[in-house]
Write a structure and sequence with these properties.
It is a multi-pass membrane protein. Pathway: Lipid metabolism; sphingolipid metabolism; Sphingolipid metabolism. One of its GO terms (cellular component) is membrane. The chain is an alpha/beta fold. It is built from 13 helices and 13 strands. Helix 1 runs antiparallel to helix 11, helix 2 runs parallel beside helix 3 and helix 11 runs antiparallel to helix 12. The two termini are about 30 Å apart.
Length: about 400
């Protein structure tokens, strides 16, 4: 069988991927430089409740959560932590935070009620009964923020026509291990450029679990968290519901940290697969089209196929150089720590493998619980789901 026609196709896709990466780098600089709204100096700030659903003792959990307790925000603040298991070790972390911050209102909700197949959302439904303030800021437990985070998010939410706020995020390795750095690179050179391209060209309307801010009134108007109790892409669906109120989801010009804790390849593979399948369910066409973002692996395949010309390896080298330039540009635009660039080719090959495997099955794992994802994005719990569906064989 003559396969010589395939090589030019892969090489062309790689060149398109190079253009895509350089455009993303330019959009990143433009995004970070855009003016940020500010609340009037000395004006009263709305009261805020921060919701932090917890499940288990994650690495760096205390340090992550404490950044939300150390906010330079002059208005009233309540932090609500929630768990569904009375024996959850995260409870001890919350007690430590209470001791360290006696002047901050910290509430702990321990409630085992399950309201749907999405366990995180069930936790939020239980926590919502304890919200005391006008503005709600929901953020995942593995996020790290600066002291001015709350002030900037509330300022964005106060703008006309805004019904919700979400935040870009970057990877923060929790340790010096290779896998934590690979996880952080996946966010910084795969996720972040794709979001910048999608939003910059008006092709995407994202909403991330890193931060979702809205008013208590808006939550009531959309029917509460019950509306998304069975959805895999609960963050996206919450954003869609908030847009349905007639406003937009604003994204401030800064990025917050996502702690990357992976210490082995299976865990890294599983949670990236969950991300990929979430995106695939939300936007199947966009997910398939994102193949061009994998410029370096595409160029390598093109160079190894029969009929590859003398310039094939040059295209691969160009693709890798573009990836390094993209990484450096985003690091400077958002003030990130430099990455070990020698990991980029490994990262890109692993990302392409995970992207390809994302088409194979609808199996996902979250916090040790297995699910099957059906066509509309609904989660179906499966207690005996085979791990073979989650990780490639050696």
């Amino acid at each position: 069988m003559d396969l010589t026609w395939l090589s030019p196709i892969f090489l062309l896709l790689a060149v398109v991927g190079c253009v895509y990466g350089l455009t993303s780098a330019w959009l990143g600089g433009r995004f970070a430089a855009k003016p940020a709204p500010r609340l009037p100096e000395g004006a009263a700030r709305p009261s805020v409740t921060i919701l932090k659903p917890l499940c288990g003792l994650e690495p760096n959990l205390y340090q992550n959560l404490e950044t939300f307790c150390r906010q330079d925000y002059p208005g009233p603040v309540q932090v609500v932590f929630g768990v569904q298991n009375a024996a959850d070790p995260a409870i001890g972390v919350v007690e430590r935070l209470r001791e360290a911050h006696p002047d901050l209102r910290i509430d702990l909700v321990i409630d085992a009620r399950q309201h749907g197949s999405n366990r995180k959302v069930s936790n939020l439904i239980n926590m919502a009964e304890h919200v005391a303030h006008a503005v709600i800021v929901l953020a995942d437990s593995d996020m790290v923020v600066a002291p001015d985070y709350l002030e900037r998010v509330v300022a964005e939410l106060s703008q006309p026509g805004v019904t919700g706020v979400t935040c870009l995020y970057h990877g923060v390795p929790a340790n010096r291990g290779v896998y934590a750095h690979l996880s952080a690179l996946a966010i910084d050179v795969q996720f972040l450029p794709n979001v910048l391209m999608g939003t910059g060209l008006g092709l995407a309307k994202p909403c991330f679990g890193s931060t979702i801010a809205f008013t208590a009134e808006s939550l009531s108007r959309i029917g509460g968290f019950q509306r998304i109790r069975n959805d895999l892409a609960d963050d996206y669906e919450l954003g869609e519901a908030l847009r349905g109120l007639g406003g937009r989801i604003a994204i401030p010009n800064f990025s917050i940290g996502h702690t990357c804790v992976d210490t082995e390849i299976p865990g890294l593979w599983r949670h990236e697969l969950r991300w990929n399948r979430t995106i695939r369910n939300v936007d199947p066409a966009g997910y398939a089209g994102s193949v061009v973002t994998h410029a370096f692996p595409l160029a390598l395949i093109g160079a190894l196929l029969p009929g590859a010309g003398s310039g094939a390896l040059a295209v691969a080298a160009l693709a890798l150089a573009c990836r390094v330039l993209l990484c450096i540009r985003l690091e400077r635009a958002f003030g990130l720590q430099p990455h070990p660039y020698w990991l980029l080719p490994i990262r890109d090959i692993l990302s392409f493998m995970n992207f390809s495997w994302g088409f194979v099955s609808g199996a996902v794992t979250w916090k040790g619980h297995d699910y099957r994802v059906v066509a509309d994005g609904t989660l179906i719990p499966e207690a005996q789901l085979s791990k073979d569906a989650e990780a490639p064989t050696a």
